[in-house]
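Customer escalation, tier 2.

The customer says the design service returned an amino acid string that "doesn't look like it belongs to this structure." They asked us to rerun it and document both sides in this ticket. The original structure tokens are below, unchanged.
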């Protein structure tokens, strides 16, 4: 996922030096009980890599990586002792209406169309041979 500062989009590209931050999100997908087309997502980590800052290449800077799995282990350990946390434990993550899912509306060798959980949207993903910028 590439992030560009919102203010940068208000001006012509020739008048403002560009900035770009690239995020690589790690997720784990699993099927959901009770719905054959529903896929559950668990976000396991994110890596943020600065690419460009005010027109200067900065991709030699080290990325910032964040592991998101340690919180789930902690929640699982204390969920039975703290009222309300049982909804966030990993036990119910495969239930059909548990948070973090999308529904597959169409799938073939070249195209995937998904509908994200509300208030998401519909996305069409097309297979490509190379995704290098």
């Amino acid at each position: 996922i590439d992030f560009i500062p919102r203010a940068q989009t208000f001006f012509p590209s020739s008048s403002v030096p560009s900035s770009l931050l690239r995020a690589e999100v790690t997720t784990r997908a699993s099927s959901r009980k009770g719905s054959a087309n529903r896929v559950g997502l668990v976000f396991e980590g994110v890596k943020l890599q600065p690419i460009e800052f005010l027109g200067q290449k900065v991709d030699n800077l080290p990325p910032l990586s964040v592991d998101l799995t340690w919180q789930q282990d902690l929640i699982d350990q204390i969920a039975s002792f703290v009222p309300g946390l049982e909804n966030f434990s990993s036990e119910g993550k495969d239930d059909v209406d548990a948070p973090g899912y999308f529904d597959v509306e169409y799938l073939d060798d070249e195209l995937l169309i998904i509908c994200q959980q509300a208030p998401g949207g519909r996305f069409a993903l097309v297979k490509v041979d190379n995704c290098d910028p």
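Tier 2 assessment: The sequence is consistent with the input. The two ends are 12 Å apart (CA to CA). The mean pLDDT is 81. Sent an explanation to the customer and offered a walkthrough call.
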